[in-house]
Every structure is written in structure tokens, then in C-alpha cells.
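ping. complex inputs:
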Amino acid sequence: MSSNYRSFRKSVPWLILFLETVFIILFYFLFSGYNASISNISYTDFQDVNNMVIFGFGFFLAFLKRYSFSSTGFNLLIIVLGVQCSILMEGLLVLLLREAKEGDLKIITTAVVSMTAVVISSGAVLGKTNPIQLIVMTVVEVIVFQASRWINKRFLQVPDNISMMHVHLFGAYFGLAVSSRFSEPSPRSEKNASTPKSYLLSMLGTLFLWVFWPSFNSVLADADKTKAIYNTYFALAVSAVTAFTLSVLTTMDGKFRMTHVHSAALAGGVTVCYAAESIDYPWIAMILGLLASLITILGSFCLQRCLNPALKIHDASGVHFTFGLPGLLGAVAQVVLLVIKKWTVLPSLGYVVMIYIGAFCLTISVALITGFITGLILNFKLLKIIPVSKYFEDHFYWEVSFRVKLTMWEYI
Amino acid sequence: MSSNYRSFRKSVPWLILFLETVFIILFYFLFSGYNASISNISYTDFQDVNNMVIFGFGFFLAFLKRYSFSSTGFNLLIIVLGVQCSILMEGLLVLLLREAKEGDLKIITTAVVSMTAVVISSGAVLGKTNPIQLIVMTVVEVIVFQASRWINKRFLQVPDNISMMHVHLFGAYFGLAVSSRFSEPSPRSEKNASTPKSYLLSMLGTLFLWVFWPSFNSVLADADKTKAIYNTYFALAVSAVTAFTLSVLTTMDGKFRMTHVHSAALAGGVTVCYAAESIDYPWIAMILGLLASLITILGSFCLQRCLNPALKIHDASGVHFTFGLPGLLGAVAQVVLLVIKKWTVLPSLGYVVMIYIGAFCLTISVALITGFITGLILNFKLLKIIPVSKYFEDHFYWEVSFRVKLTMWEYI
Amino acid sequence: MSSNYRSFRKSVPWLILFLETVFIILFYFLFSGYNASISNISYTDFQDVNNMVIFGFGFFLAFLKRYSFSSTGFNLLIIVLGVQCSILMEGLLVLLLREAKEGDLKIITTAVVSMTAVVISSGAVLGKTNPIQLIVMTVVEVIVFQASRWINKRFLQVPDNISMMHVHLFGAYFGLAVSSRFSEPSPRSEKNASTPKSYLLSMLGTLFLWVFWPSFNSVLADADKTKAIYNTYFALAVSAVTAFTLSVLTTMDGKFRMTHVHSAALAGGVTVCYAAESIDYPWIAMILGLLASLITILGSFCLQRCLNPALKIHDASGVHFTFGLPGLLGAVAQVVLLVIKKWTVLPSLGYVVMIYIGAFCLTISVALITGFITGLILNFKLLKIIPVSKYFEDHFYWEVSFRVKLTMWEYI
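pong. complex structure:
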């Protein structure tokens, strides 16, 4: 198997180079110059999101003791490929469907934001995919997510910034469906363990994500960016507090668990993303943050014990309860808030509610189905799945000098 | 004791949840919607300060080898609680005293800036407090600091942005007074030691703080933000240079000491905070930076040998010489600069000088007295002080798998 | 030798203090107040560049297992000294040559950007210079680089922002010339090895640099900042992809090498810096990014095997292929793009081309000659070169407690 993989490995770079060449040629045909039309996105907004995705998620996922090179490195690789792919999809839509062309900064920012889906999915199969599988997954997911957004926009009239916020839901369920096709690691294996140092690296990424999440939720907001920022901040604050609280309640001897803090502190930001612009009072955002944190920690408790073993899903970094469940909660909350707010005003309320529910059900269904198919494709002989014994190992992909490895990896 | 603490631990989450519920209810009554009035604070300014407090201070305090989880984690916890508390205080002031309501971004930014006091105080008792004690300290300190600022503003007519800059002084002396009520760790204990890796984490936080300090000093500036930025940058630059110089002079065999660089490189920013807006020439800021660094390193030399043992204070992360003394120097420097500048112009100079001196004396006195009382409260049986033998131990609060702990903590 | 060094060390701080005092006095005479003239540089732009230089480069260079204190610490020291020196040079030019005075933010930003040259040069001699040598090198390099820019501007009429982008070329070749005067470390020595943890720290710095590079290339741009941002982003994206690809192709058994990713992912940003403002199509930037990555990885392959041993140069952190060769490619690319674009328009094309080629040839020549001379000066008995056996050792300069050192440095 390993020699198979090695011979296969020789074809890896040519595949990536081929893909990159195709991208450059498509850019040549699709982008006939820059379009500096004014948008309400500033370079600083873009930079915050870029920072989150490259730096924040790179280190957020670096919690496996032997997989930190791959976590941060492959994260960079799939994002830069995915962003190009996403921009090209946008260009194709403009060309084929004669949609209005947006400003360049909006296109790039949208591409970077939509990469969150890919990063979340890659978290679900963290340590189990080789780079080629990751790249194939990235390209497929970017295309499907763009298509799903386009359907949302065209047929369900969902506004652009709301359809974009399905990114967490899509990423989580696509990733889960993909991961269902990968075998579980041996339960006695300690390779996918974490050390205090790797948790600390992950904390570094988490704090980065936490600080920049208000930018993420407001970057594509149309009307009221500042409201989106405040609501996100309050939701994040309360969910961080709740994360600590519930962690003590759910662990054996009343200690804090680092993974709880990592995932639940961010849950508020995920939940509030749909309604961030429309919530008028901080206390609503705060309650959403509290519920988000609650659902995340209860989810981590229940899913890991009941659902995942039953469905034979191994969710390597807990994306289901970190992004999936809070996203679901947020989508439901948005509908509830809409109903409460417009109870008397809107005669066609039922229709609007159906549209919103339809939008996120559609997104999840598309994610699950295409994710499952992608999982099947990734396990084709051609893409040479790596043996389970080589899961979660940096040195299978990276040059790590053996002497160092022994001392370093064993003792830390 | 340990079993006591465990039974106590079960009540911890309910206390936090209760507090959070009270906060949400108060938010419901006090904030009837967002107030998007224009202020001269941009989201980027807020983001810089937020980044400093959450990320910068979190890692700045992560220099203890076995306490990095708690340093970064509890830092997040107390800040998110404190920010909510501080915003509520502001709302109460508006409600009860009919003060003018400020823009939301200004309120949140002010809350985040004032959390620096709590973070500095938590540095003074780093490793010696349990989460409940930290939370009680946070709530008390936020309330007292707001009250002290309000007195400054109302009775001494100190401008808002100057009274805010007392945050370093208040934090340091409050923390010192609190820490005087905690027993010292055994001098032979090596638990509160640092390793090169933990110093490096702390360096990461320090560099973050260093880079964003000009934002901190200028964020609440009224008139001349750019001048505040330049002066802070120059003061920081010179104090970084001086930190290296004096470190060589004060250590045994002429080597650099990492803690000197950490604290003295930031001293310039602390010192110049009062006068940042009013200094007209870079060389004045530079001299202040030099003096700040000097006072920090001499302070670290003298305090640790003479004053602290005499007063039986164990200042766990040296907040006295990192924030206290440079803050004092800055307050004095502001007065001196004012006297020089307005020597001929102002007839009532003496009165103004008295006001400024009164303001920081009052701040320090309030900090010392309330800090001392808080220290007493924190040592009530109810708040169950942890045994000295468990100081500086992450695994007392966090799930750290024992096997990993043994290899990890022992060898690093 | 060691005792020699120790006695010498006692004079170190006085030298730095003397330098700092001279700086403050010069600031007193040269800067008679702040000049808040409007420029197209915002504080956020400056902050991004400041962050890159202090934080990004500090950790980018922290890849040696025993030299991370010095990498991050001395980086801060030389930058703060160099920035002051660079600002003073600007002030002297205004005073002596009656040049127009620029806005303060422009002056400080220019100073921080030009420090990149010094940081790159310090990378070439990383681990081999003592602090005094570094400071002397910094002061000399800042003065020579400013002079070289002034010649470019005055006699070759090169625009300010283009002459500034010679910073990579200048830094790399100056550093290489300096490093040619330092003896090579023993090839069997393992002191200049890296560990996975130190590579990860370096990855942290690299990702920071990668994210903020578009700010770096656009900060001094005159006309079209956004175009500079897009082109840099696309070039960086493609060079990151290519870095992974070529790394697999050039290593023995088809694995990724971390150093390849570190240097080649940034190469696109270096290459595109000259033409960032004038490239009209993303695909051109992308091709430049691809070529930059190619030249970096091939360069790292060829230089380390052929050229460096032949010339007896030990390029400690590969600045030749990380910054030198991509910079060269960028300078050539700029000329080629100019020729293609203005083929028919400009009658005096030949003259313009000669000017551009002249500018970068002059820069490289000045860098090589002055670097060589600086290397000679640094090896004077007076500046007491450290013994080769003490290269790459933090504990030669920093207090690292021996007990910790043994366990820490040996096992990690």
C-alpha cells in the first residue's frame, strides 16, 4: 500500500500543476481586467476574513499532536485553490447566465467566506485524507456550494448574504457525509490524541476566530453592518461564558475541557450569523449565544456517545456540534424571530417562512447527498485511500527527520 | 480540602449561569435597542483593542509552564463577563443619573478598554485564584473602577479619555492589594517556573500588545488621534531599546532576561498613555519611553528583592513594575508637561495641577482600599481558597490526561 | 574567547544607550513638531506593515530549535533602532537637501517598510552575529539603503514606491555579502537544526506574512491601491499552490518540505511587488506567482548544492532564494511588462528600460559592495566575533536556566 502510494505520489504534483494551469487559462478568458466598482466592503473587512480563514482555522485545526504541519499547511493549500475555483465559478455565472458582475473586492471576499465551508468539511475528515482527496473534495464542494447558493438565490429569492451564511451548515453536513465513507481509526490508537501544547496552538486559532467573528458576520451585510457586529459580539460573549459553565457540568469531576471551550465559545457566532443584521436588542443575541453554547456542548455529549457510533461516523474535529447544530439553531431562530416580528404586518408570512425553511433544508440535503457521493468518489481506487494505520500522521506527507521525530513526537 | 473543593465545584456553574441570567435580564431592561450615533471610533479601532485584550493579554500571561490553559482560558472568561458587566454599569449610569447616552461602539470599546484593569489585576494573582474568585474579583473591580472613573469625571472634571487611562494604575494597585491577602508559594516550589517554550508564548502575546498599543492609546482620544499614535510608537520604540540595554546591565553575567524584555518593552506605552495626545515633539515621548523602561527594570530589581518580601506581597507576573510604576511615571509626567507648557498662559495652573494629582491619587487609593477588601472577601471560607500546593496547576481546573501530563509537563 | 566576550558584553549596553541618546538629540533638532499633512496612507495600512515586520518576521525567523528567543527578540531590537535611524535619515535629507517634507505617517511607514531590508539581511546571518554586530549592521544598512534609494530617485528618476520595493533585493544581497565574511558552522553540528515545533512557530510567522503581504505591496502605492492588493493576492495564491507542488517534485521520496512551503509561498508576493500596481489582468499576476515559486524552489535546490559551497556562503535562512531570486524575477518582469505594454506608444522606450534595469543593477551592486565592507567591519577584533562553536545558541545571549535547558533543549 505504501509503495502504491509512493508511486501515486509522483503523479500528485502534475495533477495540481494541471489544475493550476487550467485555472490560469480560465482566468485569462473570464477576467478581462479589474472592476473597481464601489462596494460596501473595505479592504480591512476582507483582510479580517482572510486572516480568520488562513490563520485562525489553520491553527484551530492544529489540535492533533502529530498532525499540526498538515493542519496548517493543507489548510493553506485548499484555501488558495478553493478561492481561485470559487472566483472562476462566479465568472462563469456572469458569462453563462448573464448575471450582473460584482466589484472585485466583493468577489474575492465572497470566495474567501465560502471557503469556510471547505475548511469545516476538511475538519470532519481531518487526518484521514491525503492531499489529492482534499483537493478533489475542495473543488467539488466549492462547485456544489456555489450551485446551491445560486438555486437559493434564483428560485427561493433568498438574499445573497443570507444564502452565504449557510456556509457553516453546508460545510458541516457535507463533511459529515464525506467522513461516513472513511473507516474509523482504531479506538485504542493514540495517534489522534492531543497534547497540552497542541491544545494551546488550537486555542491560539480559536481566540483569533473569536476576535474576528464579528467581521465575518458583518462583512457581507447589506444594510446594517454595525448591528451585525454588536449582535455577534454579544452572542460570542455569552456563548464563551456558557461554554465554561457547561463544560464543568458535563465532565466527570467538574473540570473544564479544552475542546468544549474551543467549540462552544464560537457557537454563538455561528448561530447568530443569519439574524445578526435583524436583531434589534442585545438580549436576544445573548440568549441565542447561550442556546448555541448549550446545544454545542449537549451535542458533543450526545453525538459522540449515541449518534456517531450508531451511524459509524467519525467526526474528527467535532464539526457537527461546532458548526452544524449551532447553524441549524441559527436558521430556526431566524425563522422564529421573523414570525414574531412580522406577525401582524405581513399577510404572506406563511410563504416567507416556507421559503426560509426550504432554503436551509435544501442546503442541508444538497450537502448530505453531494457529500456522500464525494465520499464515494474519494474512496475510488484511483485516489488511493491511505491505510487506517497511517491516519493522523504528519510524517506520512511531510519530511520530518526521524531522529527528531522520535524524541519530539514521543515526549511531547 | 480537595474533596471540599470538588463539592464546591459543582456549584460553580450554577453561580456563573445565575450571573449570566441576571446580565441578560438587565440588558433587557436597560438597552432598548441599538444606538448608532456617530462617534470617532471606528470598528477597526475597536477590533485592535479587542484583539489586544483577548489575544495579546491571554498569551502575555501564558508564561507559567503549567498554567497556560488557565492563563488564556480564564482570561477569555473574565473579559467576556467583565465587558457585559461594564456595559451594564454604563447603562445604569445613564438610567439613574440621567447622563447622556453614548454611541454603542463607544460603550463597547470603553468596556473592553476598562477590562485591561481586570486583566492586569488577574496577572497579580495569576495561578493563585480559582475561577469563582476570579469572577467575583472581576465583577467587583469593574464596578469599583467605573465608580472611580465617575467620581473623577463628576467631581474632578477629568476628561473621559484621561480618566480611562488610569486603567493601568488601577489594575496594578488593585491587583497588588488583592494579592497581599494570598499566601506566597513555597520558594522551593518549581511550579511557578517558566520554560523557554512558555516564555516564547508570552513573547507572542507581548509582540501583539506592542504592535497594537498605539491603537490602545489613541482609541478614546478626542482631538488628535494621530499624535497619540506617533507618540505611543516612539515611546514604545525607545522603551524596547532600553529594555534590552538595562537587562544586560542588571543581570548577573550580562545576558538578556526575557521577562525584562516582556515588561519593559511595553512600559513606554503605559507611561505615555496620559500625555499621548498633548505631546508635541517625538523626543519628549522618546525620553518618557526611556524613563519608563528604566523605572520598570529598576523596579523589577528593587521590588522583588526589597519591597515585596517586606510587604509579603507575591506579585505573580510583576504587574507592579510592568503597569504600576510606569503608570505612575506617566501620571506625574503629564502634570510636569502641563506645568511646563502652560506656565505663562494659565492663571489657575495650580488648581489644574491639583486636580490631576488628586485624580490619580484618588484612583490609587480607591484601588488599594477596595483591592484589599476584595482580597479579604476572596479568602472567605465560602469562596474556598485553593491550597497553596495546588497553585499554578492547570490540571486542578482542566482535564489534562495524566499520561500526557507526565511526559509533557515533566520533559518540557 | 568567552571571557573576552563577557568583558566586552559589559560595554554593550553603554553603546546602545549612547546610540539611543544620539537619536533622541537628533530628533530634538530635526523634528520640530508633528506634520499631519494628509497622505493616502491610513493608520490601518501602517498597522498591517508594522504587524508584519515585528510579529511576522519575528516568528518567520524562529525556525532554529535553540535560537527562538534571539530570533524574535533581536528582531524587535533591530527594528525599533532601525526605524528611528531611518526616520532621522529622512529628516536629514529634508534639512540638508531641502527636499519636501512628507506627512508623518508616510515617514514612519516608509521607515518600517525599509526595515524589511535589515530583517532579511539579519536572516542571512541568523545565529552567527552578536547583538552589537546586528546593531552596527542595522545602522549601516539603513543609511546605505536610504542613500541607494535617494540615488535611484534623484539620478534615475525612479518613482518613490518602486525604489522602495528594491527592499527585498537590497536586503538579500546585502545579507549574503555580509554572511560571506562569517565562517560556516561545522556541517556535523546539529545546532542549526529545526524541530517540528520550531517549524510550526515559523509557520505561524509565515501565515502572518502571507496574509498581510497585500498590505505591504499596496501601502506605498500611489495610484491604484486596490489593483496592487488583488495582484498580490493572486500571485501569493498561485505561489502557495506551486510551493506544495514543487516541494513534492524536488524532495527524495515525494514528501512536502516545510521550508519549501515557508519560502515559496511568499515568493509570489516578493516578485509581484514591482509591477503590482500596473498589472491589469489577474492571470499575469498568477503566472508571475507560479514563476516566483518555481525559481525559489529550484534556487533552493541549486544554490544550496552548487553556488553556496563554491562561494563559501552559508545563507542561514535561505534569503537568497526566498527574497533575492524572486525579487530579481520581479524586477525583470516589470521591465518585460513595460516593454510589452508600451511597445508602440513610447518612442523613448529604450531609455526607460535602461533606467529600470540600471536601477536594480545599481541597487544590487551597492548592496553587494557595502554588504561586503560591512561584513569586514563586523569581523574587526573590536566587534569580537563569537566563536563558531557558539553559533545558533540562545543561551549565549539569554538567561536560560540550565536545568530547564537540559531537559527542554535536549528533548524537544
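Residues 172 and 320 of chain A are 6 Å apart (CA to CA).
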